[in-house]
Amino acid sequence: MHQIDAAKELRPIAVFARETPFSAAQYRWAMTQVRRAVWEMSSSSDIEQVFKAMMNGLIELGIPFNEIGVNLIDDTSKTPRFVTFNQAFKDKGYKPRPALSSADGEKVVLQLWRAQTVSYRRDLLAQDLYSEWAWMEPVRCIVDVPFEMGTLAVNNLEPDAFSRRHLDILWEMAQLVNGGFRRIEDLAALEKRNQVLEEEIARHRQTGQALRTSEKRLALHQQQLRRLAAQLARSEAQERRRLAEDLHDRISQTLALTQMRLDLLAQAPEMAERAAAIDGISALIAQMDEDIRSMTFELSPPVLYELGLEPALEWLAEKAQDEYGFNVEIEAQGPVQTLDEELRTLIFRALRELLHNVGKHAQAQQVHIALLRDKNEWTVVITDDGQGFRPEEKSTRPNSMGGSGLFHIRERLDFIGGRFTIESEPGRGTRCCLVAPLEASEPMGQVELT
What we know:
Blueprint: H1 24-39, H2 47-61, E1 67-74, E2 81-88, H3 103-115, E3 119-121, H4 133-136, E4 141-147, E5 150-156, H5 164-267, H6 271-299, H7 302-306, H8 309-324, E6 327-333, H9 341-362, E7 366-373, E8 377-384, H10 403-416, E9 419-424, E10 430-437, E11 447-449
Parallel strand pairs: 6-7, 9-11
Antiparallel strand pairs: 1-2, 1-5, 3-4, 4-5, 7-8, 8-10, 9-10
Helix pairs in contact: 1-2, 1-5, 5-6, 5-10, 8-9, 9-10
């Protein structure tokens, strides 16, 4: 049973107003109306429906009242905050005042709420304990029922209007109202939690999508690595076979001829014949030396590592001119000497392969090589005035025109994040463009044929 502030009452607790009898069915109906209205609350603005149900219930039970109010109190901060709702019994022709219109009124409500006992002021004119008459006139008696989140206030224009049973019923209604506001808070907290969960789910979905994207990129990267490794193995086998053929066709044959000349020298009876044999042997040794130098440059040109890319490209141009008969011009814009060894080697080998293809297929007279640098990448462009071709009919795959060399160029540029494009038309020459980043990145390069 709740407590009633009897110490501040004007008369003994046993003296209460006479009450109108009501049945148990009327009581159940009245409380059900309030309970249903409270349960349907979704926000504080729905308190009007609760007031309507409470007034209908009080009328049904014969409990006299003039005005009903609810004071919500938040004392979590240093200065308590009040949210007040009130409703008058309009049939009596009395309009409610703005609730808690003064700071004194808030102090009284806060004091009564903190006491957590039902406070019944029977007659403000006879005994005004909280000096309320100044702002409550013409109200004569007031009941404040505290609950967890505030107070339920009911007043009347007549003194001694409420009985002990009336106070019990008001206390029960106050607990129902408290449950309604508590439910609103719980719904708000649940909605906020749902929003947080939805945001977390969205983040997890984004993370999952990013993870799947990363897995796809990793799978692509691994596939490119396997393809590059296989191509490197094929290139190594081809290079070994070419080296073996060069050693057989050039060095071995020259050594065989030198051995024959030495045999003839041993059998020559005259000095003149010996001198001629020695001259022939000397020429063969010189040719063999030139062949060895040429093979060394093709395998790993010392000028590239000792002097840099520009001298190596000049040597490559001279060699191409001697072998294929076209003129080669080289234009460098930017500090080529700052290129790292890996990028220098890649550009050198790519240009060697492209010059070989020009000499083998293009029937060109003029070739131009341009090396251009911007902020983040190097661009190498090689153009020729040859017969050209239709790029859509060719590809940079192994065993197509250009053999595996262009395919290897594409794969290598792919791996370091570069790109390789070919532009050509029949009768209008060919333009090849290699773009390589200054710093290696994840494989993003592609071959474009236009």
